[in-house]
Specification:
17 helices, 422 residues, two-stranded antiparallel sheet, two-stranded parallel sheet, 4 strands
Length: 422
């Protein structure tokens, strides 16, 4: 365990060198710019985790329908409680910079070329993940493990009130982001590199989508006091520096220009991280551009997402492109923007995408494009249907969510997004 005094001293050094159930709230809890839901959620500065949903779950944990998800959450949290800390400095490979504080990862679909003596340059096999990417040489799995642990611990703290979960979550955050000996530098210059081709790619900016749940988790931990005020400011500063890198680095600019799901995920991350870093004007600028900049060109009038349909996992990538649009639709009211109701000149919109994709829930074989595991794609889309049911007041979308949930009763999203009921 890291003592408070050691953490305070190390934090100062790091900054110098580098930078009883609660009542259910009314449905109208308001997200207020970079303060998020803090004013309606006892100081918890979340942006997508809505107080009315989480409080409803907490008040109804005895509901048998929630039991599998809650049991799975506590198991995850207890595993994280007893588990390790994670740091980018633990990887076995040294980044091109020579500094292990720099994050590195490898493009997922790149494989050694068997016709070349050393396999380089690697060749691409769309949809087939090279297991080399997930070894200790790289940071992608390590970052994912850290984010997953922080998420589970923060939710367990909220639902149980047990401080031990918040304490471990704060320590994980400190080690990954703030400790001068282990902290990750806020850039992705060497993310998703390809041996023999490039040290890093624009697609690597996508790797930090894992940090979206970290932002929500930090907000949920606020009442615990486990994150000290100086640490909170340092975390916000880390994300502020990262948003600047996203906007100015060559690979960041290239990712922003991407026409498929990568460009949408770029916007989602930038808007979320800007809100967390207390830069609401930047978040509003991004979110206000999503209609014309992302929805119009990337969703057809019939709801198809054409950039994703040529992939070997077309249904998966259709939902993967919809996910950040839904996330931004949830963020948008924080800065006075409406994306749920947006319609382009040809009727393009998030609702059109749902109308197209919903027909294949439970009938994935009817999806007219290639997908290696279409049923998996539908299961992963559960929270998208739950959120949209609330957004549109649509019992039909809620029924789709319930249909998916019967196949995945332990899905964690059922704790953070209350199933829609009229």
């Amino acid at each position: 365990m890291i003592s408070a005094s050691i953490r305070a001293l190390a934090l100062a050094a790091g900054l110098a060198t580098a930078l009883t159930a609660a009542p259910v709230l009314a449905q109208g809890a308001v997200c207020k710019a970079d303060d998020g839901y803090a004013g309606a959620f006892e100081g918890r500065r979340t942006f997508r985790w809505k107080p009315q949903w989480l409080q409803a779950t907490k008040a109804n944990l005895s509901d048998p329908s929630l039991a599998p998800a809650y049991k799975a959450l506590i198991a995850r949290a207890d595993k994280a409680l007893a588990g390790p800390y994670y740091a980018v400095t633990e990887k076995t490979r040294t980044p091109p910079s020579g500094d292990k504080h720099d994050y590195i990862s490898m493009g997922p679909y790149w494989w050694p070329d068997a016709s070349k003596p050393n396999g380089e340059p690697y060749i691409r096999k769309d949809g087939e993940v090279n297991p080399e990417r997930n070894t200790e040489a790289f940071d992608a799995v390590r970052m994912d493990n850290m984010a997953s642990a922080v998420e589970a611990l923060s939710l367990a703290y909220y639902f149980t009130g047990e401080a031990k979960y918040a304490t471990k979550a704060s320590e994980l955050l400190y080690v990954w982001f703030l400790d001068p000996d282990t902290r990750m530098r806020p850039h992705m210059t060497y993310a998703q590199g390809v041996p023999g081709r490039t040290l890093g790619r624009a697609e690597g900016v996508l790797d930090t989508f894992r940090l979206l749940r970290v932002v929500e988790s930090i907000g949920l931990l606020a009442p615990s006091g486990a994150i000290k005020p100086a640490e909170q400011k340092a975390l916000e500063h880390w994300f502020e520096v990262y948003t600047m890198w996203m906007q100015t680095a060559p690979t960041g600019k290239e990712e922003r220009a991407a026409k498929n799901n990568h460009g949408i995920w770029y916007d989602y991350q930038l808007a979320t991280f800007a809100l967390f870093a207390r830069k609401p004007d930047l978040a509003k600028e991004v979110l206000a551009s999503v209609g014309k900049g992302r929805i119009d060109p990337q969703i057809d009038a019939d709801g198809k997402l054409p950039e994703e349909l040529a992939r070997t996992k077309a249904l998966h990538y259709s939902y993967f492109a919809l996910e950040p649009l839904v996330g931004m639709a949830e963020l948008a009211p924080c800065v006075g923007v409406d994306l749920w109701g947006y319609k382009g000149p040809k009727g393009q919109g998030i609702r059109a995408a749902y109308d197209y994709l919903a027909q294949f829930v439970g009938d994935e074989k009817a999806f007219p494009y290639k997908d290696l595991k279409p049923e998996d794609a539908t299961r992963e889309a559960l929270p998208l249907y739950d959120v949209a049911a609330w957004a549109y007041g649509d019992a039909g979308l809620a029924a789709k969510a319930d249909q998916i949930a019967r196949q995945t009763p332990s899905a964690g999203s059922r704790l953070t997004v209350a199933p829609y009921r009229k």
